[in-house]
From TrEMBL:
It holds the Pfam family APH. GO terms for molecular function: ethanolamine kinase activity. This is Phosphotransferase family protein. GO terms for cellular component: cytoplasm. InterPro entries: Aminoglycoside_PTrfase, Kinase-like_dom_sf. One of its GO terms (biological process) is phosphatidylethanolamine biosynthetic process. It comes from the Bacteria. Residues 20-238 form the Aminoglycoside phosphotransferase domain.
């Protein structure tokens, strides 16, 4: 469908009248809009498949429907190729500072449990596997194909990824969100919602736990609390080391995601600065892991 994003939205068959459309800032794999149609408000997400990031919109749709059925996410109101329309949640996205508050972590943990345990009960059709070490290797190939300015770093990053993959097993399997940024939690004043299922798929639960910690810079004490509360047991040194390996892998994936986005994304976002920030955080985390 041609035309502007606003034209695409107006052409949807679900409106009762002429909708008003406002961009929502912050999306870095989609373009998001708040649409008012009379008294109804909804969010329209525009985004095609992104093969270099292994994003399938059919998988995102299935995960969004299952996440609503599990009580985590707003309802899907409509979908079409490249378009996902969701019920609007009148809430604010969390910040990393919010997530770092212990009371907020206590509210987030049940959502992670529901994601991991209950979404598979509602998910229909073929489901993705989000294996971070495969994603990292695939990103390395995409960087080579795109003649990335970061190619001089890639060999060393792959060597570190191999160390982390060996250290992170054995692996349990759960249904992961796989992108636990603070802004993917919404607080409506009564409850939290978990949104944005672009990368959803089966994975080890340690990836979501490590991603939550790395994306929001939790302290070591908070990380131990998170592991103990999630697994309902004391943290062993073996579990702590496997967790730290997956936390490092989460940071490496985010770094290489940004490197690939520097080449391929058309969204107005400073990917270069995001790459530098996450590369520095990964190097610090890997150094700590290697010394443990």
């Amino acid at each position: 469908m041609g035309g502007s994003p606003e034209d695409r939205i107006r052409a949807l068959c679900i409106w009762r009248g002429a909708p008003t459309i406002e961009p929502i800032a912050g999306g870095i794999t989609n373009r998001n809009y708040l649409v008012r149609d009379g008294a109804r408000r909804c969010v329209v997400r525009l985004g095609e498949d992104i093969p270099v990031h292994q994003i399938s919109r059919a998988n995102e749709l299935a995960a969004s429907i299952a996440a609503h059925a599990a009580g985590l996410s707003p309802a899907v109101l409509h979908h079409a190729p490249g378009v996902l329309v969701l019920d609007y949640v009148d809430g604010r996205p969390l910040t990393p500072e919010d997530v770092g508050a212990h009371r907020t972590l206590e509210r987030i943990l049940p959502l992670i449990h529901v994601c991991h345990r209950d979404i598979p009960k509602h998910f229909r059709g073929a489901a993705m596997i989000f294996w971070v070490f495969h994603v990292i290797r695939d990103y390395a190939a995409s960087l080579k194909d795109g003649c990335s300015t970061h190619m001089h770093r890639v060999g060393g990053l792959l060597d570190k990824a191999a160390v982390l993959e060996r250290a992170a097993g054995p692996f349990e399997i759960a249904f992961g969100h796989n992108d636990l940024l603070a802004a993917n939690f919404l607080d409506d004043g009564r409850r939290l919602w978990l949104i944005d299922w672009d990368y959803a798929g089966f994975n080890t639960p340690l990836f979501d736990l490590g991603g939550l910690a790395s994306n929001n810079e939790l302290s070591a004490k908070q990380e131990d609390w998170l592991l103990e509360a999630y697994f309902d047991t004391a943290v062993t040194e073996d579990l702590r080391r496997r967790y730290r390996a997956m936390k490092c892998a989460s940071l490496l994936r985010e770094t290489m995601w940004s490197m690939v986005s520097e080449i391929h994304s058309t969204i107005d976002f400073d990917y270069g600065a995001y790459t530098a920030e996450n590369l520095a955080r990964f190097n610090r985390a890997f150094d700590t892991f290697a010394q443990s």
